[in-house]
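User: My instructor asked us to take a sequence, write out its structure as tokens, and then describe one feature of it. I'm not sure where to start. Here is the sequence I was given:
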Amino acid sequence: MRITIDVTLDYRLSGEDTVLLTLEAAQTDGQTVLDSALDIGPVPLHRLPGEGGVGERVCAVVDGDNLKLRYHASVQVSRRDVALEPLAQMPLESLSPEVLTYLRPSRFCQSDLFTPFVQRQFGHLEGGAKIAAMRDWVASGLAYVIGSSNPATTAIDTFVAREGVCRDFTHLMCSFARAAGIPARYISVYGADVQPPDFHAVAQVWLDGDWHIVDATGMGRAGALVVIACGRDAADVAFMETTKNAMPVVQNIRVTQA
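Assistant: Let's start with the prediction itself. The structure tokens for your sequence are:
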């Protein structure tokens, strides 16, 4: 499947600032970037490796009080949609240090606090069947409500409120999986079926020796998503980071598939 991405951002900055951007499609397993163009005008750019070796960050030193950005990419997605249920949980001793990182609690995914609940609710299941049950629980147990959370909302907050957006669904999904001893990481993606069109978040779980995408919102499937970056939670994959205040003027994301 070929997916086309067009992003327009116009932000008002509080004077000269160094901006970190994580919004380009990654050249990674399951997808090939066919063409890509990032236009920020006459601004010095420096490229840095993304978390976990997935994608890149772009560091832009903006001289002025406006950031105007255009990004276009065409990506061929070859990733298969895989049924989770038959997949096996990997033993702890088989995990590499890179994968082991995603078993630990993080700022927004307090997985250690969910262990008793996860054991009671999902303890009778194994491996991919357990992950599928977690996905279904999050999908049916939470209401997708725009504006119901904020950048400080954690998985515990979402569990109590029973509502959120893709970021919150993913934090809770990652927390459940880690509490069950299954590595899970937070992935930022583009998806043609995401409504409203925006940067989207899904989980990836480590089963049968590979990463598998899980979208508890139901808006994306593995074979129709373009991965941007990965991390422990949303703090690792923010599409834009600034050292001063930044106010959006225009933010438009358009994703289409052929």
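For the description part of your assignment, you could build on this observation: The chain has two domains: 2-78+239-257, 92-236. Try explaining in your own words what that tells you about the chain.
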